[in-house]
Amino acid sequence: MTVRTKRQLPVIISLLAVMSILIAASNPLVALKSLLCKMSTHKQGQKNTEDKLKEAWQLLRRYDLSGAEKILAEIKDKIDQDLPQYIEANLIYAAVLCNKDNPKKEDIERAEKILRQLISRYPQNKATPYAIMQLARIYELEHYYGDKPDIEKAQDCYRTIIEHYPHSPLASQAIIRLAATYISSTERQKIEDGIKIIKDWLGKHPNDKLAGIMHLYIADVYFLPLMDYKKAIDEYIKADKLGAVDLLQKDLIYWRIARTADKKLGNKAIAKRYYRKIIEQLPDSGRYWQAKTALERLESESSEIKR
Amino acid sequence: MIPELKKAGNIHRSKKLIPIGLFIIFLLYSVIHCSTVEKSKYDESKINLTIAHWQLDRGYREALSSIIDEYQRLHPDVQIHQLAVSEQYYRQLINTTLTAEDLPDIIELDHRSVANIDEYLTRYFQPLSSYLKRPNPYNKGTDLEGTPWQDTFIDRMRTWYRPALQDYFAVPTSVSVCRLFYNKDLLREITGKESIPKSFSEFIKTLELIKKYTERTGKHIIPISVSRYDATIIYWRYIVGFTANYEDTLDMDRDGIISGLELYLGLKDGKIRWDDDVNKACYELLRLLSNYFERGFTAIDRDQRTLFFIQGRAVMMAGTSWEFTSISKETKFPIGVCDFPIPGPNEPFGKYTKGKLSEAATGTAAGFSVCRLSKHKDKAIDFLQFLTSKRINEDFNSKIDQIPSIRGARIKEELLPFMPDPEGYTTMMRWYWQDKSRAIYYGALLEYLQGLISFDEFGNIIENALNDPHYGWRYSLLQDIRQMRTTVRMQERLISILNLDLLFPRKIPDADKKLKEAVLKQIRELHKIDIYRYIAKNKLNFKLE
Question: Scanning A75, A106, B254, B491, which has its CA 20 to 30 A from the CA of A34?
């Protein structure tokens, strides 16, 4: 071995060492590369899913439920079950199946299965009461020819929302729905039980977001079929104070209050107040002129009494 | 060939070439002209919007063009093209372009096209509630500055609200009101009167004078020219005055409408009878009035009835504010306009009529929608804001001789007789319930008005129709419930979507308010079904499956 060769030996050894290290490290590098690649694909997939979900929402807003159904059917099982989009896609898909035009028995059964899975898998998720509500609607409404509503099952679902998720925004909707299952009876006692459900809730939650709607609903029930006009008018006035009447064709409710107070209860003060509301607030109502003449009549009656 | 013949042949050939040459020149001219016209019309560097409508009345297109020009001066980057199609083909145009998803950017909403069906409306047209809540920027400097766009319309857009979709899909530009037009010259010549009397009995005397004039002179003059369409409008204007008497007795739910169910219950409980004095008086008045319409008016269409009036063959005509200008431009005689005279307290029929039809709730008309697929939705909405701003709407309606749809916009003096009159009633009672008994009612009504059947026979037909085992009250009750269930399902869909939107915020505007409204409307509709079921069981002894 020459001196020159001897000098080059450490270099060769170090090169060999580096090469062996590189060879040894090549597998983890491949693994790392593949991991990075996988992550990016996953991210890409997630992005695609998010885009598709957005697209489904756009279609939903246009009430194009069949378009949304196609997209959701495609993505709902591809999403990682730990991601919030999984619950979102599945819950919307179930709602679409129930609310699309002419749903078939299979659609409703599929929706029920999805909803049950969501409820059992994510009992504490904020979406769970929504899944239970959708399930209740499946039981209560008739979706296809031959579908038999199961009111008791629907009532169980509403009660579950009220008792287990009292702070969910759906709790007050569930109260109205539960009461409605009783009010829809043709028996007076059951109708009164329905009213009691709402009144009890309102006693505990006077500031409920749907309180105005609840008062309006029980006012309607007192009006017909119960024909308890005094209670009906009291409830309409409460609903009016809470702004619920603004959600409807206001003049018709005001007319109902004024006319009933005038003709059925002889309560001229309420009648005058509501005739005046029609005249002042709703001059473009078809009831404007009638309210005006009725108010004039009541006022002339009062002045005659004074005289 | 001899030279002469050759020459003649050449001349003959060149003569043959003349038309070909002319054709080529014409073709070239056409191509060049078309391309330049296209270029000038559709300037690709600008935002091009198309507005489609069926208003072919005189002056409408010109008026719209001048508004468009003004808008284009303000927005030089925008070009708006009018697509005016006759009423006959408009529906086809909309249906076809809608199917092809190639709708014009702005369309006048036709109530008879598929575009007016909720499902299509929501899919192809832009919901406008979020825009309507904001002030119309073009009202700056007027008393409407800062007022939400919706509140600037005289009906606050009530006419255009779609309850099942909880939104608005069109903005109106004008108002339409029905009145009696009269030929002033002819009226003076025949009756010596300058105007139509306001008193009902004097009105009937005037009509009688016209009828006698025809008998006396042999000149065929129609007292009132109506089409089958106007006749129904006239009838309802009078019927309301009589049926308003039944409101307190029959309108069980006090919603201002006597429904089919309320009518039937009233009949069953003896609260109302066909031969009640009020009802008898009502139909006698309609029969009396119909004596002065052209014989066979049920087969006359609107164009024909207008023609009779324009040609001076009719003294009066039932018409709308929409037609007034185009008709006055066509006629050589002055036209008067008045409301339909209503029997007063001391006149025949006066004892039984409460008053006239209230026009307080007269809605707005000629609504324009924006296509959802338009590339320039915001510009299209901006143009509609311009068109419905106080100054422009006043100017536009003044040019087309219509009543503006915007509060406080001035109305032309000659249109003052068309101003909606709030005095009167709105409660109608129809002697039918649902489609099948409706068809029977109208058939019998026309037979009665033409004197083919008596009042009692008319009543028997009506009562038999309501009690018919196939299409009578049972069928109608079920039909009502079916329709209510459809509404419930539409609301259910809406509630479901809105609930999900609040859970996974995807920002549907006003989702919270819309949800409350949908829940309330659905629960009230369900309650209405309950009431029907309750009444069916307890009052009609009819169990609903």
Answer: A75
Is A277 in contact with A304 (CB distance < 8 Å)?
A: no
Chain B residue numbers with beta carbons less than 8 Å from the beta carbon of A285 are 360-361
In three-state secondary structure terms, B357 is strand
Query: Are A288 and B372 a contacting pair at CB < 8 A?
Result: no
Whole-complex ipTM: 0.85
Q: Which residue has the tokens 């059992």?
A: A120
- Taking residue A239's Cβ as centre, other Cβ atoms within 10 Å add up to 27
Q: Which of B385, B23, B293, B340 is nearest to B178 (CA)?
A: B340
Decide if B254 and A260 are in contact by the 8 Å CB cutoff.
yes
The encoded tokens of residue B121 equal: 């409306």
Distance from the Cα of B61 to chain A's closest Cα (Å) equals 31
* B262-280: pLDDT as tens digits: 999 999 999 999 999 999 9
Give CA A164 to chain center in angstroms. Answer: 17
The β-bridge partners of B318 are B180
Pairing of the two strands B171-175 and B364-370: antiparallel
- A293, two tokens: 């003449």
Question: Is the overall model pTM greater than 0.90, yes or no?
Answer: no
- Helix, strand, coil fractions of chain B, as percent rounded to 5: 55, 10, 30
Residue that the structure tokens 């609504």 belong to: B367
Pairing of strands B106-108, B47-53: parallel
In B, residues 519-538, which contact A (CB 8 Å cutoff)? 519-521, 523-524, 526-527, 529-531, 533-535, 537-538
Please, what's the b/e burial string for B500-517 (b: 16 or more CB within 10 A of its CB; e: otherwise)? bbbbbebebeebeebbbb
